[in-house]
Design a protein that fits this description.
The complex is a heterodimer of chains A (about 300) and B (about 300). Chain A has helices at about 10-35, 40-45, 55-65, 65-100, 105-120, 125-130, 140-145, 150-165, 170-175, 180-190, 195-210, 215-220, 230-245, 250-255, 260-285. By secondary structure, chain A is mainly α. In chain A, helix 4 runs antiparallel to helix 11. Chain A is globular and about 75 Å long. The two termini of chain A are about 35 Å apart. Chain B is about 70% helix and about 0% strand. Chain B has a two-stranded antiparallel ribbon with strand order 1-2. In chain B, helix 4 (about 65-100) runs antiparallel to helix 10 (about 205-230), helix 8 packs across helix 10 (about 205-230) and helix 13 packs antiparallel against helix 14 (about 270-300). The chains are: A mainly alpha (about 300), B mainly alpha (about 300). Chains A and B meet through helix 1, helix 2, helix 4, helix 5 and helix 6 of A and helix 1, helix 4, helix 5, helix 6 and helix 7 of B.
Chain lengths: ~300, ~300
């Protein structure tokens, strides 16, 4: 494939990809620039890549006056932290038995997990169950439990990793030494499975951090339990309410909407953690491990 | 008998490890599957899903009597078809471009650029799109359209623009996923093929047409069939958040997922949304099975089961 650096094909390929890279990056720059633009300038001139007048007011506001905003970040951080740990622990515990080749009933257990990837009841029965039976509405459990705590896909990926990367001889040696299954799990499986557990943890963490659907369905009255995404989402709804409503509540709703610059600043801070985990994420995806890992 | 007791003792801890996750799946996934019967019930909060009276096919009759059922089915399928074609064609094209980039640093940068938007939540996407399309402050109405001498557009109330906007946003966000799989596929091709082709005087285009694309074919077929299997499902976030739930553009932005959501949460019409959800689950399941059956014929190792 080696060729001259300035062949027609090289120029075409690089030009196309540079254009696409710019298309990807520009919106993020716009988001950031709007967050540091003076509010009056923003209202008068609209969103702009070059802030007419720079102001860090939005970020100062988040830190100083943004009780609601800081609370939302608190919920996001807490739920992401607890959820990710539980997710990885439950998935690893579930994946390990599935990776034992001579476990009686393994095929059935495998199918039990796998089938949830093929068929699901959808949101209506789920919603009726979580609210009617478990009463999670307006509790922190609503952010933690539905859909995100465990994914069959993660379990399958971890199981395949355990089967292919941990040699049977290690288990045999441990059993000869009289180690219990618990001990084997803690001292062999967990340490050796670290790469896949870190990766799957990254995925789980991202799902929790980015989730806004649980809040949309289950956090109705107690807005203290909103996470960052819910908060951003609610600001949009308030604006829509304003543009369609003529009632006298308008003024009270209006006072609840932070300025555009503040909204953009909140959104930008919500993206920051994703930049942190991006390298881990990319390493995994670039290996192209996304396919075939489910079987095995 | 000894061996059985011994076996039990040996395997019991393993079953116990499996148990917590199994209980979760039972609650979160299996009970709602059984709960699909609510589509055939006259749902009543006090009596719950299983205690409510039967309604026969009433809910379905209501659902299919509205024009909505047809519109959301059409939208769901058409959007997915366009997404599949674009993500495949552009994904392969970008993968070829990236793999052939000689400069290592540039290659790394391109790969990061195509993947990064994939990690954004739909809420963030909607903010980004809004910065471009907001009627009074958006870049489009403020800078781009005036520069071209065109009048401002009320983006969030004109349905005709949304197929293009949603397709563009979906590509912007989702191109990286398939593209990285194709890159892995191209990197797996033996370089000797290209060397031989070059000795024979093959042009770049001929190399792509006769080596790269045929080598990727099994991956393309598998990915495509898997997407076709999911053609009845759509990205709720893309269709709910990005159009900002604006009622005036439902004709081109409403899909089955958003329809079920609105029926349940905004109109409290449990029966109808349950019927729509049932329709989606069952047809979706049949399509997944069919797609897998066909993948199995093409390449056994790529089938899901």
């Amino acid at each position: 494939m080696r060729e001259k650096p300035f062949s027609r094909f090289q120029i075409l390929a690089n030009t196309s990809m540079i254009v696409w890279t710019i298309i990807v990056i520009l919106p993020f720059i716009l988001l950031f620039m709007s967050s540091i633009t003076d509010e009056n300038t923003l209202v008068a001139n609209g969103y702009s890549f070059i802030p007419g007048k720079i102001a860090a007011d939005a970020y100062v506001y988040i830190i100083k006056a943004g009780d609601k905003i800081l609370k939302a970040y608190g919920v996001s951080i807490l739920v992401t932290f607890v959820g990710t740990i539980l997710n990885v622990l439950l998935s690893a515990l579930m994946a390990y038995p599935l990776s034992i080749k001579n476990l009686p009933g393994r095929k059935f257990l495998n199918f039990f997990v796998f089938f949830t990837m093929l068929f699901n009841g959808g949101i209506v029965p789920s919603y009726l169950m979580w609210t009617g039976v478990f009463h999670i509405k307006d509790t922190l459990f609503a952010q933690l439990l539905p859909n995100l705590l465990l994914s069959a896909w993660n379990v399958m990926m971890i199981r395949t990793y355990f089967t292919t990367s941990i040699p049977d001889s290690l288990y045999e040696a441990a059993e000869i030494d009289g180690a219990s299954q618990t001990k084997i799990f803690l001292s062999i499986v967990m340490p050796l499975g670290k790469p896949i557990l870190v990766t799957m943890g990254t995925f789980a963490g991202l799902s929790y951090w980015n989730d806004w659907t649980n809040g949309l369905y289950y956090i109705v009255r107690n807005r203290d339990l909103y996470n960052v995404q819910n908060l951003l989402n609610q600001m949009v709804s308030n604006i829509q309410y304003l543009s369609t409503s003529t009632s006298s509540n308008v003024t009270s709703a209006a006072s609840n909407i932070p300025s555009t610059a503040i909204q953009m600043a909140i959104a930008f801070v919500a993206i920051l953690p994703i930049m942190l985990i991006f390298p881990t994420f990319q390493k995994y995806y670039s290996k192209g491990l996304t396919m075939g890992g489910v079987k095995g | 008998m000894i061996s059985k007791a011994k076996k039990m003792k040996r395997y019991l801890p393993l079953y116990l490890m499996f148990l917590p996750g199994a209980i979760y799946l039972l609650i979160n996934n299996y009970i709602p599957m059984a709960g699909l019967v609510v589509a055939f019930k006259k749902y009543n909060i006090r009596q719950g899903i299983f205690g409510s009276a039967w309604a026969g096919l009433k809910n379905f009759e209501f659902l299919f009597a509205t024009p909505d059922a047809w519109v959301v089915t059409r939208n769901t399928i058409l959007y997915n078809l366009v997404f599949i074609v674009l993500n495949t064609v552009l994904g392969i094209l970008f993968a070829i471009f990236i793999c052939d980039t000689l400069n290592k640093k540039l290659r790394k940068m391109y790969q990061s650029a195509i993947l990064f938007p994939f990690l954004m939540s739909a809420v963030i996407l909607s903010y980004i799109v809004y910065a471009f399309l907001s009627q009074s402050t958006g870049i489009a109405n403020n800078s781009i359209l005036p520069a071209l001498g065109l009048d401002p557009v009320k983006w969030y109330s004109e349905a005709k623009y949304w197929p293009f906007i949603l397709v563009f946003v979906n590509t912007w966000k989702g191109i990286g996923y398939g593209c990285l799989i194709y890159i892995a596929g191209i990197n797996g091709i033996d370089l000797a093929y290209y060397e031989a082709a070059k000795l024979d005087g093959a042009t770049k285009w001929q190399q792509i047409k006769c080596i790269t694309i045929p080598s990727l074919a099994p991956t393309v077929i598998t990915l495509t069939l898997m997407s076709v299997g999911r053609i009845f499902y759509s990205d709720f976030g893309l269709f709910y958040q990005v159009p900002r739930n604006s009622g005036m553009i439902y004709s081109t932005t409403n899909v089955i997922d958003t329809y079920v959501y609105r029926g349940l949460m905004e109109q409290s019409n449990v029966g109808m949304s349950a019927a729509a959800g049932f329709y989606q689950s069952v047809v979706g399941f049949a399509l997944v099975l069919t797609a897998n059956f066909i993948v199995k014929k093409f390449s056994k190792e790529n089938a899901l089961f």
